[in-house]
Specification:
alpha/beta, 11 strands, rod-shaped
Length: about 350
């Protein structure tokens, strides 16, 4: 039957082992990021990333000390060389970071976007008038003038012998008369002061009447777009899609995934140590746009509504944020379990609303 006392001792040891925390020693936890993920108010810290971590640490009975890191890049380097055990904050999970041999990531706890911040400046009269000199309008006018010249010349060549009263034989006044006739036909005004009498001239005129319907539509569309931009106050320099950022000066925060993404898209980087400094670069005109986490730039604008800045109507892509830890760290599984539980229970969504509202 065995010794009952021995069995009791084994059972007691098993219970004690199960009651031990996952990690007995105090964790050195690096923290990096900007509001609303990491908010610093004196000695107090809060934010989406901090609140999620506090729930996880409490659930898993983890003791820890927070150690500030100047950027995600510096924090990952500290994790890689063993200076810290864990890195929390809006740490984007990217292929380059996953390739680091000594670094791993938890299950993503937040889905974010890389946003673009643009200056919001009232357009000057000159900048508004410039829309009429855009390539769309200018090219349409040049094409129209060329077509009128060709049609006018053809009409003159067909009419100069039999109809010299309306289309003089001398080439300069003759072509001018032909172009005037082409313009009158194009606009359907129909003054009747000039009209072809030859069969060739009438054939050219008939073809021109049909072609002019298409020509007028093209020119009208270009001018309508220009007038719309003029009346709305928009300018030719307005950035409306990511492709327009190529080769532009873009303020970025050093060591962030936004900086990597801007570099990949061939933008001219103007680095700053933090978001506040990057915003200042944009305000001073040293950059044409700012690339950073969209929740962070929206939070910054909410806290500083007087800034003449706006979030672009597009983003550069989605990002998943996770906590970084050492490769093969046994903490990974319990942290993932806690993150998935919080997501399923809607706790992370509540944390998100609390920090953004």
């Amino acid at each position: 039957m065995g010794n009952p006392g021995w069995r009791t001792t084994v059972a007691l040891i098993a219970v004690l082992i199960c009651a031990e925390p996952i990690r007995a020693e105090t964790l050195k936890v690096g923290v990096t990021g900007s509001p609303p993920f990491v908010i610093r108010e004196g000695d107090k810290r809060s934010g989406i990333s901090l609140d999620v971590w506090l729930h996880i640490a409490e659930e898993n009975d983890l003791a820890f000390d927070l150690i500030s890191q100047s950027s995600p890049k510096k924090g990952l380097q500290a994790l890689n060389d063993g200076s810290i055990d864990l890195l929390i904050g809006p740490i984007s999970i990217t292929p380059r970071r996953l390739a680091m041999p000594k670094v791993d990531f938890t299950q993503p706890y937040y889905m974010g976007r890389v946003g673009v911040l643009l200056p919001l400046e009232p357009p000057s009269l000159l900048s508004r008038v410039q829309v009429f000199f855009g390539w769309a309008v200018v090219s349409s006018i040049l094409v129209m003038m060329s077509v009128l010249l060709v049609v006018g010349s053809l009409i003159w060549l067909a009419e100069r012998r039999r109809n010299p009263e309306q289309f003089p034989r001398r080439w300069m006044p003759g072509i001018a008369s032909g172009m005037w006739f082409a313009v009158v036909t194009l606009t359907t005004v129909g003054y009747g002061d000039k009209a072809p009498v030859t069969r060739t001239g009438r054939s050219i005129t008939g073809a021109w009447m049909i072609i002019s319907l298409i020509a007028v539509s093209s020119l009208t569309a270009s001018l309508a777009s220009a007038f719309t931009l003029f009346l709305s106050g928009s300018t030719l320099d307005v950035i409306t899609n990511p492709l327009q950022l190529k080769e532009r000066r873009v303020a970025v925060v050093s060591g962030t995934s936004g900086m990597d993404m801007a570099e990949q898209r061939e933008m001219r980087l103007v680095p700053s140590a933090d978001l506040k400094g990057a915003v200042q670069l944009l305000l001073e005109g040293q950059a044409d746009a700012l690339v950073f986490d969209e929740p962070a730039i929206r939070y910054h604008l909410k806290q500083n509504p007087q800034l003449p800045l706006q979030v672009a109507p597009f983003n550069l892509g989605e990002e998943t944020y996770g906590f970084a830890l050492k490769a093969n760290d046994p903490l990974r599984t319990p942290l993932n379990v806690s993150i998935l539980r919080m997501q399923k229970m809607g706790e992370i969504e509540e944390i998100d609303k609390k920090n953004l509202n």
